[in-house]
Amino acid sequence: MFIFEKRTQIPVRINNKNPRLAGIILSQYGGPDGELSASLRYLSQRFSMPDNMGIGVLTDIGTEELAHLEIVGSIVSQLTSGEGAKSFDRYGVGDYYVDHSNAVYPQNAAGAPFTAAYLQSKGDPIADITEDLAAEQKARATYDNILRLSDDPDVNNVIRFLREREVVHFQRFGDTMLTKLKAIIMKKKHC
Amino acid sequence: MENNLNGRQLLQAVDEASFYMQDLKLYLDTHPNDTVAIGMFKEAAKQYKACKEAFECACYPLNAEASRDEECWDWLMGAWPPQKL
Question: Best of A6, A69, A182 to disrupt the B interface by mutation (most B CBs within 10 Å)?
Answer without folding.
Answer: A6
